[in-house]
Each structure stands twice: as C-alpha cells, then as structure tokens.
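Ticket opened by: R.M.
Priority: normal
Category: complex prediction / small molecule

The reporter submitted a protein together with adenosine-5'-triphosphate and asked that the result be attached to this ticket for the collaborator who will pick it up next week. Submitted input follows.
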Amino acid sequence: TEETLVLVKPDGVARGLTGTILARIEAKGYSLVDIRLVEPSRDLLAQHYAEHEGKPFYEPLLEFMMSGPVVAIRLAGNRVIEGFRSLAGTTDPTTAAPGTIRGDLGRDWGLAVQQNLVHGSDSPESAARELAIWF
Ligand code: ATP
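Result attached by the on-call engineer:
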C-alpha cells in the first residue's frame, strides 16, 4: 500500500463539491487516513509549489489557493498515487476526460487550468514531501 496527498482546492470547497469528490475517492476503495480543513499560509504554499516558483502562473496560483479553505487528505491504497491522478484527470478540466473528477466537475472557463478542483501528488517522493508539509 501507498500514501498520497490529495487536496480539494478552494474552488471545490466553495462549490460544495467536497462530499462528491470524497464519495468518488471512497467508491474507488481508497482509505482516508487523515483529513483536515486548512487555510494555508503563503509560506506553506510556497513550500508545496516550490517547483513552480518563477513561472507566470505561480503568484496567481498562490492567491487562488489562499482564497478559501482547502481540504487536505492523507489517502492510502494500492498504487494510490497513480490511481488518484487517473481519477482526477489531466490538469486542464477543459479537456480532461469524462469520468474523471476534473472532466466531470471542472468548469470550462478562462481559469479552468488554475481552478481544477483537486491536487494529487505525482510521485512517491512528492507524496512524502507534501504529506510532511500539510500534516
Ligand atoms: P496538481 O499537481 O495540482 O495535481 P498537475 O500536476 O496536474 O496538478 P502542475 O503542472 O503540477 O499540474 O501544476 C500545479 C497546479 O498549478 C495545477 O493544478 C494548476 O492549478 C496550476 N497550473 C498549472 N498550469 C497552469 C497554467 N498554465 N495556468 C494557470 N495555472 C496553472
């Protein structure tokens, strides 16, 4: 078994989709090991998004992530890192596949690629690093 960090981003919480997203995660059979509602500081987000520092979308991304509460989840399961990313769909909800969280629930509008509902760690190294930041 493996662990990953999942975030329901501020757009997901604000739109009342936390329960729907959790239901999809649970239906897949993954285990909620820990869950908390967080209002992330700039410091926490700078650590989380360190690899994106300097990119044009970095500042707007931090502002967006500070715009409201985030639900942080420590999630466990067989190959959950890859599995959750598959469940989430590709980064931009505009073209994410139907059947995925982003494809089914993400809105097709200008900021879709930023406001894409969820985050999931992309490797075992990222998962360990990110879980230590959020929990
Ligand atoms: P995540 O790591 O959040 O699961 P990802 O791995 O699909 O998403 P990354 O490329 O790591 O995407 O980007 C991290 C986050 O930055 C994205 O989830 C999105 O919110 C935002 N982002 C990425 N690319 C853009 C962009 N071109 N414009 C605006 N925001 C972006």
